[in-house]
Amino acid sequence: MKVPLHIVLARRERLALIVEQHRYLSVKELCLRLKVSEATLRRDLAVLAQEKKITRTYGGALSEFNDRFPSFRERQGQGTRAKARIATAALRFFKPGKTYFFDSGTTIYAIAEAFRDQPVTPVTIVTSNLPVGEILASIPGVQVFQLAGQLLHLQSTLLGETAQKSLEFWRFDVAFLSAEGMDGEGIWNSQAAIVEQQKVLMGRTGVSVFCLDSSKLKRRAPHFLLPWSQVEFLLTDLTPEKLRGAGIAIRDEQLPAAALKTSAKSAAIPPPPGPLADEAEPDEFPVHIL
User: Are residues 92 and 9 in the same domain?
Assistant: First the structure.
């Protein structure tokens, strides 16, 4: 039975609105939201793309996210001191012979810069972050692999269903992840596709480490990723007091010397070298186990 034109037009208007609000959604999720078949959805997407209302990508629809969200280079100059502190703490997670994932974002890039200056080899690194791949690929003893996927050139990252599928070839000892916000409820991110990709990644990772500076505190993004009960490690420049003040509960043994020894999934992580008290104040080592 042929669907009346006014219903088709209303459905396409809703589809354009959903894509505008959520930037990227997979074909599967769009079908579920609109209760239509994949064939119908693809026809609607083609019409909307022809009308310049959306930009289509393989496996989904990307609506100006790449252009609207501040570019990688713009974000790189923000919060450099906090990112450097987080990067220094991240070096404690590296051990020869392991496989690591580097997520998108400028804080993760800062970790790559710190690793370049103090490399641990041999290791394998997989990343969706183009600048990370560029600066680490020349280090002797470091094998670097880039995910497949849709390239967002201003964000310098690879995203989408193809990227998710390429993760299925790997198992990671440690993954360094980014996000757009955190509050008492948990961690938030800007795109459904990023959340989907990170969930696939965490399912294939021994230890997941979220790297979030103080600018992300008490911020929500459009998509919820996970609650704190599912977060193993948080690298941040925030003190325990500020985290607790935002409703983020951490255990008393949040300092690295205790944290890296008590996690059931942290066998791949070496303990920090030397006594913590001899090196710096506790808040200089922003590793929290949650």
Answer: no
| CB-CB contact of 122 with 146 (8 Å) | no
Give the pLDDT confidence of 209-232 residue by residue, as tens digits. Answer: 999 999 999 999 889 999 999 998
200 shares a domain with 99: yes
DSSP letters, 79-111, are SHHHHHHHHHHHGGG--TT-EEEE-SSHHHHHH
* Residue 65 reports pLDDT greater than 70: no
Structural domain count, the chain? 2
Closest among 47, 48, 18, 20 to 31, alpha carbons compared = 18
Higher model confidence: residue 145 or residue 55?
Answer: 145
Quick one: 180 and 38 in the same domain?
Answer: no
In this predicted model, which residue has the larger pLDDT, 136 or 269?
Answer: 136
Give the tens place of pLDDT for each residue, 257-282.
Answer: 333 333 334 333 344 333 332 333 43
DSSP secondary structure letter of residue 284: G
CA distance 290 to 259: 9
Rounded to whole angstroms, the Cα distance separating 166 from 158 reads 11
Q: Domain range spanning residue 34?
A: 5-63
Q: Burial-class residue 170 by CB neighbours within 10 Å (0-12, 13-18, 19+).
A: middle
* Type of residue numbered 88: T
H-type alpha helices, the chain:
5-22, 27-34, 38-50, 65-68, 72-76, 80-90, 106-117, 130-136, 161-167, 192-202, 240-245, 256-262
Percent of the chain with pLDDT over 90: 50
Mean pLDDT of the chain: 80
User: Chain-centre distance of CA 83, in angstroms?
Assistant: 15
Distance CA 138, CA 145 (A): 12
pLDDT at 96 over 50: yes
Based on the domain organization, do 100 and 49 belong to the same domain? no
Both 45 and 90 in a single domain?
Answer: no
